[in-house]
Design goal:
Number of strands: 11
Number of helices: 0
Order of helices and strands: EEEEEEEEEEE
Strand order of the largest sheet: 3-11-10-6-7
Structural class: mainly beta
Shape: elongated
Largest sheet: 5 strands, mixed
Low-confidence stretches: none
Mean pLDDT: 89
């Protein structure tokens, strides 16, 4: 099994025939202060499987770490690749909702490791960046 696509997105829809609609792919999270809240979002994983890997349960773990390797959050789940699309490869989509109760402890770089059946398949990197509030508009002098 290989992961051919892994992204963070604001919103995802998977149709009954496994078509993905991914809205708002991002790799930067903005905040005014740290710690800050991880936004309510989704991690989208597209897997390419061998025929023998379908119709059985697989374990997936999402592990987020800061730049120093300190854990930020973990999420685990299971899936069965049974409703897959065929063609040149067998593909399955897996979507997990993340946030909004996760705290990012400081500004900087982070990574999310995607581990399937205890095997690291892909990493998604993102940055938590400080932004300043907008300046209030200047009123003309009378």
């Amino acid at each position: 099994m290989e992961v051919s696509l892994a992204v963070l997105a604001d919103y995802v829809v998977v149709s009954h025939d496994q078509k993905l609609s991914i809205l708002g792919i991002f790799n930067n999270i903005n905040g005014r202060q740290a710690p800050g809240t991880f936004p309510n979002c989704f991690i989208v994983i597209v897997m390419e499987l061998a025929a023998v890997e379908t119709n059985r349960e697989h374990e997936v773990e999402i592990r987020c770490m800061d730049a120093d390797g300190a854990p930020v959050f973990d999420a685990t789940g299971k899936f069965v690749a049974s409703n897959v699309t065929t063609g040149n490869a067998i593909r399955a989509n897996h979507v997990m909702q993340l946030g909004p109760h996760v705290q990012l402890p400081r500004f900087g770089d982070y990574s999310i490791s995607i581990i399937i059946n205890n095997d690291l398949k892909k990493e998604v990197s993102f940055s938590f960046m400080q932004v300043q509030p907008p300046e209030p508009p200047q009123l003309p002098a009378s």
